[in-house]
Amino acid sequence: MKILVCISRTPDTTAKIAFTDNNTKFQEAGVQFILNPYDEFYALIRAIELKEADPSAILHLINVGGSENDPIIRKALALGGDEAIRVNSNSHDDFYIASQIAEVAKQNNYDLIFTGKETIDYNGSSIGGMIAELLNLPFISLATKFSLEGSTATVDREIEGGDEVDEVNLPLVVSCQKGMAEQRIPNMRGIMGARTKPLKVLEPTEAGSFTEVSSFELPPAKAGVKLIPADQPEELVRLLHEEAKVI
User: Fold this and answer.
1) Phi, psi of 31 (to 5 degrees)
2) Which fold has domain 2-221?
3) Which of 11, 29, 89, 106 could form a disulfide with 15 if both were Cys (CB 3.0 to 4.6 A apart)?
4) DSSP reduced 3-state for 67
5) Sequence spans of domains, the chain
6) For residue 52, is it left (φ>0), alpha (ψ between -120 and 50) or beta?
């Protein structure tokens, strides 16, 4: 079995966000970048568990980005990937990125492709579905559990108001979220081994790009909190009537 896990580089969740060029570009200076948590904790770790259950399985990682992404790719290799592929492009267009991943997947005949449900910066949630469409494969989103019996996968996923259990034959594409696996950290053996694992850099193929950023905008600053003494309920009632807003 061949597994491909899509990974991405995102700002740390504690990073202070700012924009440049009339709010059209993200200011990367001084920002700590990490392996996207949905890709790492759920997609990658579940793929590693599948490989541990079947040592003959081959686990590849793929990232679309520049050389600045190499450290997070090496971290993913330290966790357990066999080799990685980086498509050398800094596009943020979802269709373009999905097209690059699909092109690599076509050439390698993967049985299973995992993505995180979304990245924590753009929150698009569209890459997995686009990859599946480009490859003409089944797609299951928001997966919380994944098991494999032969070539048949059983996938639990969240739906509005409950859960759904699907059975589908490989090959397929799955986007993963909380519940798929438990977080791991690389051990020293994995970190040392990651230095020598293959990291292939490919030039991008021609593909459409259909979106561009018009502008970014930070959320409005939070207003201060008003504390009302317990012996002034009439003031609380007045504020609720005159100043409180329902969001």
Assistant:
1) -95, 135
2) Rossmann fold (3.40.50)
3) 11
4) helix
5) 2-221
6) alpha
